[in-house]
Amino acid sequence: MLTVLAFVVALGILITVHEWGHYRMAVACGVKVLRFSVGFGKPLLRWKGRSGTEFVLAALPLGGYVRMLDERDAPVDAAERHLAFNQQPLRARTAIVAAGPAANLILAALLYAVVNWVGMPEPQAVLAAPASGSVAQLAGLQGAERVLAVQVGEGDEVAVHSFEQLRWSLTRAALEKQDARISWVLMGTSTQHSTLLPLSQLSNDALDGDLGAVIGVQMPWAPPVVERVLPGGAAASAGLKAGDTVHQAFGVPVVDGAQLRQLIRQHPGQSSAWTVDREGRQLQLTLVPETVEDKGEQTGRVGAYIGGATAMVTLQQGVWQGLWGGITKTWEMSALSLKMMGRMLMGQASLKNLSGPLTIADYAGKSAGMGLIQYIAFLALVSVSLGVLNLLPLPVLDGGHLMYYLWEGMTGRPVSELWMGRLQRVGVSVLLLMMCIAFFNDISRLLG
């Protein structure tokens, strides 16, 4: 129920803001607005505004529209002809069309600013043991490195405080085919080190996979502490107790909880000496993980919850710093979205990166369950995506109309009705294809 409610609220906010942008700019340009609708289909609520505009809340909340007085739709009285959309100068029509996506991008910047002002608890920028074969592991990183700053390409070194900041910086560098240099100190020490991550060398196939795992920043560091021991399991039989810190297992030094869990899964039925710290005392325990079947594969299990609490940090910014951070994040997310779409168009990125309403609904429910600030951050991300999507040069989207106006501005004449009809059909076909792919990806993710 929370997922459905969070999804509907998100759609309602983002669609209303988008259409409000069109509406306010139309009014400012002197165009008469006949109807402002959030949703399609049967009206659930309707009322008249002072200007005569009919405001409608419809049953199907998957879009909306602003209907303006236009001679192309119906005859217009001579007395109101100056209020028709089609009679406005090119700059006014361009501004009205562009105002919808612009409103979404402005909303995203403000929402990101709210997140910056309030602060969102995030894991500290400490690396877990990177997966074998990942960029971080091949570069010599082993886990428990607290990252202080990241330099992408030839740019300036930027301070990093949270794990999400670190992951975002490295993900952006990888997608932009740039190397990244990280400055770090090992936890509990003060000596600073520097490591180059050759992210520019990643293949296109690697970029289409789990990029966090490929780079080696899949999850933050958590202490290899036994949180709870289940009775009757392998851990209880070996004498393991809650509060024990594991230093070595299966002949490997243990750095963090995620690494230990992976080692357990990889060694079903294999006896191993564990070195643990219990209240300052070093103990040697022999443990044999039970063999269980998971998705057709044999994996190890010990009957214990492994991994202590991740160290958290709450980052808050001042008014202007937070606002500028929101604008910057919106710009970066928009640029990255366009680059990903371009790479998919050129065949350099998989179409599996497309997500549809099912995935959005899933993330809406998850973020809402985590708290208001997390939900606001989710709204900002989707608002960026909606703004960028509507600027694509497809005739059925705002970007398609802007493409028409660009042609009109360059040639001095509008696109002919014949070509507009042809382009409209192409745009609808492309959009339907994108929607089918997105739905297929959504279902594949949910079933997988």
Word description of this protein:
Helices cover 45% and strands 23% of the residues. It is α+β, with helices and mostly antiparallel strands and 448 residues long. It has three domains: 91-117 and 317-448, no CATH class; 120-219, Pdz3 Domain, CATH 2.30.42; 226-304, Roll (Pdz3 Domain), CATH 2.30.42.10. A four-stranded antiparallel beta sheet has the order 5-4-6-7. The protein has a four-stranded antiparallel beta sheet with strand order 10-9-11-12. The protein has a two-stranded antiparallel ribbon with strand order 1-2. A hairpin with a 5-residue loop joins β6 and β7 (192-197).
Summarize the model shown.
The chain is of the alpha+beta class. It has 13 helices and 16 strands. It folds into three domains: about 160 residues, no CATH class; about 100 residues, Pdz3 Domain (Roll), CATH 2.30.42; about 80 residues, PDZ domain (Pdz3 Domain).
Rg calculated over all Cα atoms: 27 Å
Principal-axis shape equals elongated
The description of the largest β-sheet is: 4 strands, antiparallel
Q: What is the averaged pLDDT score? A: 86
Overall number of structural domains = 3
Strand order of the largest sheet: 5-4-6-7
Using DSSP, what is the number of strands? 16
Q: Give the helix level as a range of percent.
A: 40-55%
Q: What sequence of helices (H) and strands (E) makes up the elements?
A: HEEHEHEEHEEHHEHEEHEEEEEEHHHHH
The helix-and-strand class reads alpha+beta
With helices defined by DSSP (H or I, 4 residues minimum), what is the helix count? 13
Name the beta content range: 15-25%
Classify the oligomer: single chain
Low-pLDDT segments: none
Task: Report how far the terminal alpha carbons are from each other.
Answer: 22 Å
